[in-house]
Design a protein that fits this description.
120 residues, three-stranded antiparallel sheet, 4 helices, globular
């Protein structure tokens, strides 16, 4: 059994879920422009350095009834996961980085973001 969706925690996810409720195919190429514009607007209101919004790069694919959101660089993967680090440039320079108690690794080839918990 699934868990209840909680609104207001993750603005990117909220936007995508709401779009799907409105029967928008978020993987369609015409939707990508609107989603990109909305995500940029969200980021411009969250980022300390608004110029970093240029790093937003993602794709959305669909396989039957399953959507996959892929960040095409490390900072986009973090943003789309709901993590807004204070300095995007530092994140882009390394494929491994630490935020809080987690060590993240972004695989540039597979476009996957993974993390492990750092034990104190």
């Amino acid at each position: 059994m699934g868990s209840e969706y909680i609104w207001g925690v993750h603005p990117f996810r909220d936007f995508l879920v709401n779009s799907m409720f409105l029967d928008v195919d978020i993987s369609h190429k015409n939707s990508k422009r609107d989603i990109n514009t909305a995500f940029k607007y969200i980021l411009e209101n969250l980022l300390i350095n608004r110029a970093e919004v240029v790093y937003l790069d993602f794709e959305i694919s669909k396989n039957e009834n399953h959507y996959k959101l892929i960040g095409k660089n490390a900072i986009s993967a973090l943003w789309l996961s709901g993590i807004i680090p204070s300095d995007a440039t530092l994140i882009l320079e390394s494929s491994t980085f630490i935020i809080g108690d987690r060590k993240y690794k972004y695989n540039k080839r597979t476009k996957e973001l993974t993390y492990s918990i750092i034990k104190n």
